[in-house]
Amino acid sequence: MRPPALLGLLLCLAALLAGAVAPAAAQTLSVRSAQLLQAAPASSGAAASALAESGSPVALPDLWAHSRPGFSGTLWYRIEFQPFGNLESGDLLALYIQHVCSNLEVYLNRQLVHSGGRMVEPYTNNCKHPQLITLPAALLRPGANLLDIKLAGHRLQEVALWQRAGGLSALQIGPLSALQRLHARQTALQVSVPQALGVTLALLGSFMLALGFVHRRESHLAYFGALALGWALLDARLWLRHLPLAHSVGEFLFCVLLGFITWATLQFLLSLAGVRLRWMDRCLQLQSALMVLSLLIAGPARLHAAALFWYAVLALEVMAVGLWHLHHQRHARSVWLSAAMLAAAAAAGLAELLALRQGGPAGWAGAVQLLVPVTLTLVGLRLVQQHGHTLHHAEHDRQQLEQVLRQATSEIEQSYRQLADLRVEQVTERERKRIAADLHDDLGAKLLTIVHTSESERISTLAREALEEMRLSVRGLTGKPVRLADALGDWRAEVVARLGQAGIQGSWDAPEDLPQTLSARAYVQTTRILREATSNVIKHSGGTHCSVTAGITDGDFQLVVQDNGEGISDEVDGRLDRGHGLASMKNRAKQLQGQCLVESGPGYGTVIRLTVPLDRATEAP
Description:
Largest sheet: 6 strands, antiparallel
CATH topology of the domain at 29-184: Jelly Rolls
Strand order of the largest sheet: 3-2-5-11-8-9
CATH superfamily of the domain at 29-184: Galactose-binding domain-like
Radius of gyration: 40 Å
Distance between the termini: 60 Å
Number of helices: 18
Oligomer: single chain
CATH class of the domain at 29-184: Mainly Beta
Strand content: 15-25%
Helix content: 55-70%
Mean pLDDT: 79
Shape: elongated
């Protein structure tokens, strides 16, 4: 996903959310003031009227963070209104409240018509949930009607964010059908969309966290996964209504979680730039410990002040590292990822400051707050896409490497066959040395470069195996004879190690010191025959034990590989020369004027007998 695509998605989201903040229909009544009662309304009409007169006027929205930052508990608001519309026709009126924190009960003419949940500690959290209350026609009076709202909330000092302090927005009274549309749009904006984004971020974060642990070289994926999971939990804390935690515990965990998100963000930006600073790791660990300790010392009564301090520190850290990343990675293709994240975070922070200065959450503030989770989702999808492209390129490189290896192997085999046909020793020797030098200096250097520079473990392993195969071929081309005792030592180490890695018990029986020698060609071909036989045991035999016996019999070198596997079935027995590399083994033995016999039966294992005449094997090819 390219930056123009991201910009287009954000513009579409802005257009979609613009409808969610549209004003209500003109026929609704907007209530901007209320009477703040000093105590609960009395049950009798006279007492209620007297109590209403003793109340003090208050403007709506009434945010406790501004009007009464030190108050915690319950307050009563009273509104007097005249119903409009034809009551006799059964028209339903409704009350719409965009913002209430933390919970409320609504009484119409001293009759309870709505309860938002628990009105005792811990209060039900309705700070992000707009309220739509139907006003029963049976309780409405033709004249003045009293609407009493009991609000329960927390003081500013006890909350991590000012929006979670007690507060009541302006009210709207009007037809139920008109307010239902407004309530549905606002609920989608403040609850449904954040919930969907939270689930998406949680799934995406879990996937990327696992992806980062599997591919350790791409640690930025793991850090972004931690960031996405942390933000999903952070957003969930805002719209979840019921938590089995005390209010002070929930606010404390909210602050700690913000510190964890900052740590993940900083580590993501650094790892995305390919930088690992150990002193930064230690400083972040120390900062996390200090943050937890300071919040514990501050306690619930001074939580807001301590949280504001840490918000400023964490925001400065993110902006500093983000700007450093943008400066040092300005020519990188992925620089827009961090730029989009910083822009969304800055926009959300600016929206919070403007809403606080205006004295209440504006309609557009909720839309701006969605920029961070939306941007994180898009950035996460882009990172997954980039990872997929990397895997695709790695697979393409592997296929090209295999093609090069096949071509090189074909050229090696062709050159080797040509050399075998040459009878002039001088020409043969010169050609062998030329091919060996070309392989070592050209192909060997390239394979060694791939081993040390490739980021794909699979390609590095394949290149390392190809390098070993090339070195074996070069050794065969040099024409230097090999002592049979040394060859047996090399073969034993390789075969026992391969069988052990495959979980197959291996045994080796061969004389310790043999004075005979093998030509370079015989050593290479015998090595390849033994490797193919071992591979067949590992891949196809299904056995648990394999024995290798070597020795000299009647002047011939004999090598016997026997397993206790399932053997070769009758169907495979009819096409032995076409399956499991047996044809290749027999052809290599024939080139050495020897033979390779296969003895097998279903359920009786397989025995491969290789016989190489030493008088031929000790001659130069």
